Each structure stands twice: as structure tokens, then as C-alpha cells.
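User: Can you recover a sequence for this backbone? Please restate the input before giving your answer.

Assistant: Of course. Working from this structure:
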């Protein structure tokens, strides 16, 4: 069976999976090993933008920057990515932000955004210019679209992002 993290956790929590001790398990990174299942890949969450609509120097340099009013109406959020929200919140807490500050950031980010369902759908909106930026998408989807000639990226011109990326097993 192969599906996303939340579904695998639910299956495991409901004791629908068995322990696995296969011979290749020692080759799997620690971040991909769980008690009753093993990740086959990590989907990396990162902001992505249309390079025709977000010019070099306008791209976000932090998760906090998504709250900036300059992005009002220019961001799309994936409605069901609760683990992304949790990861960003945890990151902010670890870096000294209070719950009140985090709540304010989320309110501002949501106020700047519209929502969509599905990362592929979001990328279609982005590549067509129907949205300027995605707060988060999987880097492999952005890379695949770039390879096909779409004007999208998740990296600034320097090729190195300052936005912490979060993996989803």
C-alpha cells in the first residue's frame, strides 16, 4: 500500500498494518522509518511562484513573509495540508515566537490567500497565471512543471532558498 503520511498514520493507529523487517530496511533513512510502515519518498513542501508574476527579489524569503500585505490576493493555500501548518507552527515555536504571534501570522497569511484542493490543481493555476504564488507545494511538482517549460520555480535566482522546507513522508 502506498499513500500519504496522514493516511499511513491512521492505518497504523487503527492497527491495520503489520511490523515490517525486510532486508532493505537498513538502507532507508531514519526519517522514513516508522513502527509499522516505511516511507518510499519524501514530498518536500516549499513556496512556489510564477516567474512572470513574481519577479526576482519579490519572492518570499521566509514563511513569515507570506503574511506581508504585498502578497494580498496573490497566494494559494492547499486546504488539507494540516501537516504543513503543523510543521510551520512548530518551527515558529522553536524559533521563539509566541502562540499569539503565530496566530496573528496565520490570520494574515489566510487573509492574503485563496484556497484550492490538490497540489496538481494548484500547479495548474500557477502555470496558467491564475495565481501568483503557492504558499506550499511539493518541490517535485514544481520541478516537473519547470522541466516542461512552465514559468514556475521554488528557488530564487541565487539557487538557494532561505525558507525552511518541510518533508512529508
Amino acid at each position: 500500500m502506498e499513500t500519504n503520511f496522514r493516511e499511513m498514520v491512521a492505518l497504523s493507529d487503527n492497527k491495520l498494518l503489520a511490523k515490517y523487517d525486510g532486508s532493505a530496511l537498513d538502507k532507508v533513512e531514519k526519517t522514513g522509518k516508522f513502527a509499522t510502515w516505511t516511507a518510499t519518498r519524501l514530498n518536500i513542501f516549499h513556496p512556489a511562484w510564477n516567474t512572470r508574476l513574481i519577479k526576482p527579489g519579490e519572492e518570499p524569503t521566509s514563511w513569515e513573509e507570506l503574511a506581508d500585505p504585498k502578497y494580498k490576493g496573490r497566494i494559494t493555500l492547499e486546504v488539507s495540508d494540516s501537516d504543513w501548518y503543523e510543521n510551520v507552527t512548530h518551527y515558529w515555536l522553536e524559533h521563539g515566537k509566541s502562540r499569539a504571534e503565530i496566530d496573528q501570522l496565520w490570520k494574515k497569511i489566510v487573509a492574503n490567500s485563496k484556497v484550492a484542493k490538490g497540489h496538481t490543481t494548484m500547479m495548474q493555476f500557477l502555470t496558467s497565471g491564475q495565481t501568483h504564488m503557492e504558499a506550499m507545494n511539493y518541490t517535485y511538482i514544481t520541478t516537473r512543471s519547470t522541466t516542461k517549460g512552465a514559468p514556475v520555480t521554488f528557488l530564487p535566482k541565487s539557487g538557494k532558498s532561505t525558507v525552511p522546507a518541510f518533508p512529508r513522508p
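That completes the design. The mean pLDDT is 90.
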